[in-house]
Amino acid sequence: MKTVHLLAAAAVAAISAMSVPAFAANAIVNGDFSTPNTGGGWENSQGPLVTGWTDVNEAGGNVEIGNSSIYGLTCISTNCQNLEVNNNTFGDVFQTVTGLTAGQSYTVSFDYGGRTSGGPDSMNFLVNGTQLGATIGGSIGSWTPYAFTFTAPNSGSATVEFQALVTSGLPSYGNEITNVSLLSAVPEPATWAMMMIGLGGLGVAMRSRRRMTAATA
Questions:
Q1: Which of 206, 133, 134, 130 is nearest to 161 (CA)?
Q2: In 127-164, which positions are buried (b, 16+ CB within 10 angstroms) versus exposed (e)?
Q3: pLDDT tens digits along 143-153
Q4: Which of 112, 132, 156, 164 is 20 to 30 Å apart from 92, CA to CA?
Q5: In Å, how far are 28, 134, 179 from 137, measured between CA atoms?
Q6: DSSP collapsed to 3 states, 154-191
Q7: In the chain, what are the domain boundaries?
Q8: What is the pLDDT of residues 127-181, one digit of tens each?
Q9: What CATH number was assigned to the domain covering residues 22-186?
Q10: β pairing state of 122-127 and 92-97
């Protein structure tokens, strides 16, 4: 009976491990744009203040973050803050993540909102320079969730990029982003192996238990 219990425990542990992805935690730095805390206002800065993000269209790579209410949106993130891709111009904001497993599938998700002033906004979302999905826009005054899956290249890195498009709207208004995350989309091969071992162990445990029950009946 003790052996059966041990096999069952090992099986449960292995199956539980199946749900743990390669990136159990969000690999994106400052994906909720909570740093720095703008105290209800907004901040146009770079370096140690706006950790992790750079705008290639802005002098010094400056990035604008601020309280979501400034942009006519509700609070859905830590410190109620978000990125405004359009800073002083139609922005192009990116962050590069390293340490990914080559050939592994990953999912990037984020919330997109349209600012209630400044005219029409739109942008493309890219990973490693390749646009994923259709052009994003609309959602004026509300948040819309998006998620895109990609395969990590041999380099094991991914550049996540929000690229504003030139529109008839004001270049310094619009394309609000928050709650950016990058997580493993499927378990790694080692995790699948653990799952199969667990299922096998569970099967052995169940057969052994049935035999013991039949013998004592």
A1: 130
A2: beeeebeeebbebeeebeebebebebeeeeebebbbbb
A3: 999 999 999 99
A4: 156
A5: 23, 10, 17
A6: CCCCEEEEEEECCCCCCCCCCCEEEEEEEEECCCCHHH
A7: 1-20+188-212, 22-186
A8: 999 999 999 999 999 999 999 999 999 999 999 999 999 999 999 999 999 999 9
A9: 2.60.120.260
A10: unpaired
